[in-house]
Amino acid sequence: MIEVINLTKQFLIKDKIFGVNKGVVHAVNGVNFKIEKGETLGLVGESGSGKSTIGRLMLRLLEPSDGKIFLEGRDISTISNKEFRKLRKNLQIVFQNPYSALDYKMTIEDILIQPLQIHNIVKPLEYKKEVLRLLEMVGLSAQDAKKLPHEFSGGQRQRIAIAKALATRPKFVVCDESVSALDVSVQSQILNLIMDLQEEFGLSYLFISHDLSVIRHVSNKVAVMYLGKIVEKGSVDDIFDSPKHPYTEALMSASPVPEPSRSIDRIKLQGEIPSAMNIPSGCAFHNRCPKRVAKCETVEPELIELDNGRLVSCHLYEDGRSKNES
Length: 326
Ligand code: SF4
Known about the structure:
By secondary structure, the protein is α/β, with parallel strands linked by helices. The chain contains 9 helices and 12 strands. It folds into 2 domains: 175 residues, 3-Layer(aba) Sandwich (Rossmann fold); 71 residues, no CATH class. The protein has an 8-stranded mixed sheet with strand order 6-7-8-3-9-10-12-11, with helices on both faces. A 4-stranded antiparallel sheet has the order 2-1-4-5, covered by helices on one side. The longest helix is centred in the middle third of the chain and has 18 residues. The structure holds iron/sulfur cluster. The site of iron/sulfur cluster has 14 residues, from loops. This is ABC transporter domain-containing protein. It comes from Clostridium sulfidigenes. Keywords: ATP-binding, Nucleotide-binding, Transport.
C-alpha cells in the first residue's frame, strides 16, 4: 500500500534575530519500510526519535529533504501540490489531542461535511445521509450531528476525529499518539474501534505511540526508532518476545509484563537521548549502550537481516546471530 525509501528530513535552525544558520536538526535519517493493505506498522521510540516527523512526511504535511514515498506504487514525494491534492483523500491522520483537532465553533455535522465537500466524496444531496453513516460507524448517533465539540467527552471527540479522517474513505491513516490523551478505559474502546474499522475497510495504519502495550495490541509489525533511524524492525511477537537491539531490549524491559509470575530485569539507560543536531559518531546509541564494544564509537552499524525478516542495526549481530548467544 505504502512504502518509504531512504526517507530523510533535516530542519535548518536559524537565529531569530540575525537570521544566521545555527545548525541542522537531523530529524529522520534514511528510513525504509513498507506497510501492506490492512496492516499496521507500530512506530516506537523516545520523544525526539523522529516518529511524528515520519507521519507528517508521509502525508506531505512536511516536504522530505530526500527519499521517496510510494502510494500503491506511485511516487507521491515528487508530484506537484495540485496533483497531490487529488490523492490527499487517500491519506489521513488522527491526531493526539481530540480537543484541538475539532473546530469548537462548528457543529459535528459541518465538521464531517467539510471533507466530503472538499474531496467531492458524495453529492451535496447525500451529505446528511453520509454524516449519519460516519457517526454510526464510530458508535455515535444522528442526535449528535447538531451538537458542538464541547458537548462531548474526550473519547467521543476522538471518535468524531476518526469519523472525520475516514470521511474521505482513505487507504492509509497515520494515528499519531491517537489514544495518549485518553483515560485507560476509553483508550481500549478507541483502539478496538480503530482495529474494527481496519478490518471492515482494509485500512493500513502507521501507529505512532510511546505506549508499548498499545503498540503491541494494534500492530502487526514494529519499527523501533532512535535518533531518526530505524534500529530494529520485525513482527510484533519477535520484537516484544525477543528484542535483539540493546535499545529495544531497554525499551521492552520498561514495559509492563502481563503475567505477574514473569519478571524482567529493568535495563536503565544512561543519560538522555542526544540532540538530533549533534548525532554521536559510529553507532548513535553508543554513549548509552550497556553492551557497546570498541568499534561502536567509530563505525556505524548497518541494518542487517536476521531470521524471519527481522532487521537490526548493531555490531553484535554482524555474523547473523548475537555474540551474546553464541
Ligand atoms: Fe550497542 Fe554497539 Fe550495538 Fe550500538 S552497535 S547498539 S553501541 S552494541
